[in-house]
Amino acid sequence: MKIIYFTDVYWPRVNGVTVSIQTFSDALRRLGHEVLIVCPEYPRERFMGTKAEAEGVFRIPSVGFFFSKEDRISVPMVVPDLFERFDAFGADVVHMQTEFSIGMLGRRYCRSRGYPIISTCHTHYEQYFEHYFPGLPPRLGRALTRASMRGMYRGDDAVIVPARQIERVLRGYGVNGKFFMIPTGVDENTFAVDADRDLRVRRYLTERFPAIRDCPLLLFVGRVGQEKNVSFLFSVMKKIREAGSNAKLVLVGDGPARTHLEKMTVEQGVGDLCVFSGYLAREDLPSVYAMADVFVFPSKTETQGLVTIEAMLCGTPVVAIGEMGTADVMAGDNGGFMVRDDTDEFTARVLQLLGDPALRARKSAEALEFSKRWTVGRMTDALLAVYDQAAAGRRKTKHTLFARIRRFLVRTPYFFT
Fold it and tell me: What residue ranges of the chain are covered by domains with CATH 3.40.50.2000?
């Protein structure tokens, strides 16, 4: 099968959508399928320290996005005969991964060629708009978000969601199409034990941050943005120290809020307890998870909870706020503790795991076993079932006068539908 992904984010942009696309495309290619990823161009310097370019990627020229320095808006009209280039690939299935310029381009391509429109809604935008448009009145922001999401998804033939909460949100907007819950899943082979790698990564981190030697380690992995609720952990760390523990917190990742949050740790008196490592190579993440005694995750906007799965696949118990995708993944206290948005409860569970080695060992074994239901192999099988159904239902292009006019209007990226 030949599959085109249309996405407004991809390497070197590091986020959950990029990881999801990479994870599924790798899994599909291992099964013998071909995948073409249509995504934005990024400045060359952005590729430093991130995944190198690979085959099967079609880059479209882009410009900076005013509201987010990490993101780009593509300009497809500067590429001649764009749809004909996609035709040459001979796709069986087309899948939209985002809602913006390239996502809209993919929908126009589908309508012009008779492909069923398959999309994935990765993000609950109502929970994010305040971070990107801080001056926008909340009521207006929510109304605009709801209207745009309803307009985008209500005409799609299949909408994939990584969490039931996203389906409920979209149905609340008036989107009543076919929904399929398919989280990304995690490649368990990537998170297999590698003693040499573990030793190398541990040596690298402890030499770089001597303060984390010989003490319990708490770990956060993710984008360092306000929407991840990272500052919640600073209050937790203060309470942990008051309880007499010498635990340290390692925060792996980067993002627009990093400088602000680093200053906040000093202001709150926990600067000596928190280490910001920045981005680390993805292939080294399993060793970082394995170093930690407890994985701590305060995000309330997570649609998938991929890092929670990754931690559990490495046998690291989790304490997380039980909302959105995290609640779907943990389904209770499986592999750790799922708690309310309460620093006292969160802290108590972390201290319980740190102070009881037998409990931590049981939760570690539980995490390893429970995480297997979220592996990429299982999720890819579910995705292929959607693709098979869509490929069988592809519409033949009609030749009526109206259809010819419509195809003329949508055959190039110059027109919106």
Answer: 2-185+376-410, 195-373
Place of tokens 């680390």: 280
d(CA 178, CA 56): 29
CATH node for 195-373: 3.40.50.2000
What token pair was written down for 382? 């579910």
- Provide CB contacts within 8 A for 121, sequence distance 6+: 99, 149, 153, 159, 160, 161, 166, 170
Are 248 and 276 contacting, i.e. CB atoms less than 8 angstroms apart? no
Sheet with 93-96: list strands edge to edge. Answer: 57-60, 34-40, 2-6, 93-96, 118-120, 158-161, 178-181
* Among 223, 187, 214, CA closest to 70: 223
Q: Which CATH superfamily is domain 2-185+376-410 in?
A: Glycogen Phosphorylase B; (3.40.50.2000)
Q: What is the 8-class DSSP label of residue 127?
A: G
Q: If we measure between CA atoms, which residue out of 385, 325, 1 comes closest to residue 185?
A: 325
Instruction: Express each pLDDT in 98-154 by its tens digit.
Output: 999 999 999 999 999 999 999 999 988 887 666 666 677 888 888 998 999 999 999
| Residues 141 and 44 sit within 8 Å (Cβ to Cβ) | no
Q: Is 22 left (phi over 0), alpha (psi -120 to 50) or beta?
A: alpha
Q: What is the pLDDT of residues 290-317, one digit of tens each?
A: 999 999 999 998 877 889 999 999 999 9
